Amino acid sequence: MxxxxxxxxxxxxxxxxxxxxxxxRDFRGDTIHPSTLDLLHELGxxxxxxxxxxxxxxxxxGIFNGHLAPMADFSRLPTHCKFIAFMPQxxxxxxxxxxxxxxxxxxxxxxxxVIDLIFDQERVAxxxxxxPDGERDFHADLVIGADGRHAxxxxxxxxxxxxxxxxxxxxxMHISKREGDPEQLFGFFCHGKLLVLINRETxxxxxxxxxxxxxxxxxxxxxxxxxxxxxxxxxxxxxRIAELDDWSKIKLLTVQINRLRRWYREGLLCxxxxxxxxxxxxxxxxxxxxxxxxxxxNLLAAKLKAGPVSVADLRLVQKRxxxxxxxxxxxxxxxxxxxxxxxxxxSSDSLPILxxxxxxxxxxxxxxxxxxxxxxxxxxxxxxxxxxx
Length: 389
Fold this sequence. Notes:
The chain is of the alpha+beta class. Helices cover 31% and strands 25% of the residues. It contains 11 helices and 20 strands.
């Protein structure tokens, strides 16, 4: 949606295809990072955007082995907004869809599921979609694959995927929120296990980390054992954990960390999770995807307005965005192999030394804040604005 908005803003004819009838998908990331809020400021949309219901968090803390530990302080960042905003992703998408529809060169087609690529010899020339009225073909100078980790675009293009490996999966569920509950915390960590609670006003979107491929073992142990594991991390949920009374209320997220060796071929560019699947750790996947979108528009918008772009042009996008992707993925791999493994560990009940340092030296909290909230190589709006937009 961000790519489509920026290209249409530059006067490029663009169509965004969405397979569902709306954007109300549950269990998506809700974090709007300071770097993204900076982009909204640069586009002149920030004040209006922040009128939407959201929560602001200037500092992130977590419960580690029973100890409250501050982890990141965004108030020190050199950004316009010195906080993370929590907002359901569908509100973000609906906001940008409404803004993009104001551009005459923008089109959004809902219930249009991409099922194949169209080839003209070796060049990708468009996509075939399944629509409510049957199959349709869309031809384009460039197809941008932003269709996630199970992408049709990179699968049909024959791209090679490099798996980095991650030892966890996650269970996602709803747990009701009640008066007197703790303020938003980054998570509850204990001996390799993790529970994340995202505040949705009337309920928590809860994520519970389990060992990779461990869902059948979890089910064999039964719901009550799962309840005990969750309550052990967040005891205040004891009076409502019985709401999870059926496995249909618990969804499995298969966690992946991978990236394409090459993100492009003639007529096709993959960005976001389609190019590099991220773990939920740090909530940074959406931030990286939006940075990809901005870089894509910065590098390609003016050229696309004139016609097709070359493979060399597409290569520049990967060259620009691959290094920050590698940095963040290396951080996530380290976290999952050393800290959040989903398995019971025999670590002590004390705080890890890194968290002790963050307690002793508050200024250090700006370092994780910068990595999470801004990331390596943040992008800024450089794409052109078409006359009249």
